[in-house]
Amino acid sequence: MTDFNEPGLLKFWESHFIEYLEDHETDDHSHDLSHFQRVWGTAQKILADEPRDVNHLIVLAACYLHDIVTIPKNHPDRSKSSQLAAEKTEEILEELNFPEELISGVSHAVAAHSFSANIPTETPEAEVVQDADRMEAIGAIGLARCFYTGGKMGSKLFDAKDPWAENRELDDREFSVDHFYCKLLTLGSTMKTVPGRKLAEENTAYLQGFLDKLREELG
């Protein structure tokens, strides 16, 4: 019986995924190879303290392929992105001769990772992947990615007249700082794993500290 958590097997498949992704580079540098590697790194931290029985190879594959298809955040079909990525993931895994019995589990984890898709996680593997990916949106990395993505969308940093939306509706397509209140500060409460919730607490506090400093500088 194959041990899908065996370190040598994980290293073997990780090298295959890296090789594939290096041959299929993207111009979206918030969803590039380094993003996938960081998500897998965070997933390993979660797995180290996760009491449930989790298939690490499913988690590994989903971490490396969850954003293999991305649709811009300001596109009307954004919510379909993870489902398209799941379909593409199945094609890639079949091409790479990945264990057939695990493909559906990887596909589900990919489809369910997305915040905008709002697909319920049905397996512990999907919960680990979702938590690990959401950690990329908070903390120092999340801060950098927020403003990088806002720049690609043509968003302003903040509303100079009302940066804290005291007399207007929040609009995170127009103002990057609004995205903290629309989504980023709420992600910690969506974490599905106990280790994920602990990691999120520290990183959410970092984001709040940034906003406090920004408020101070803006007077």
Coarse structural class:
mainly alpha
User: Which segments are poorly predicted (pLDDT under 50) over 5 or more consecutive residues?
Assistant: none
State which percent range the strand residues make up: under 5%
CATH class of the largest domain: Mainly Alpha
Q: How many angstroms does the end-to-end distance come to?
A: 63 Å
Tally of strands = 0
Question: Per CATH, what is the topology of the largest domain?
Answer: Hypothetical protein af1432
Q: What is the ordering of alpha helices and beta strands?
A: HHHHHHHHH
> How does the overall form come out from the CA principal axes?
globular
Largest sheet: none
Tell me the count of domains.
Answer: 2
Architecture of the largest domain, according to CATH? Orthogonal Bundle
Q: What average pLDDT do the residues reach?
A: 92
Question: What characteristics describe this protein?
Answer:
219 residues; Hypothetical protein af1432; 2 domains
Brief summary:
The chain is globular, with a radius of gyration of 18 Å. It has helices at residues 7-22, 33-49, 56-65, 81-95, 103-112, 124-135, 139-153, 176-182, 194-218.
Question: Describe it for me?
Answer:
With 219 residues, this protein is mostly helical. It has 2 domains: 1-120, Hypothetical protein af1432; 137-219, Hypothetical protein af1432 (Orthogonal Bundle). The chain is built from 9 helices and no strands. The longest helix is centred in the C-terminal third of the chain and has 25 residues, at 194-218. The radius of gyration is 18 Å and the shape is globular. The chain starts with 6 loop residues before the first helix and ends with a helix.
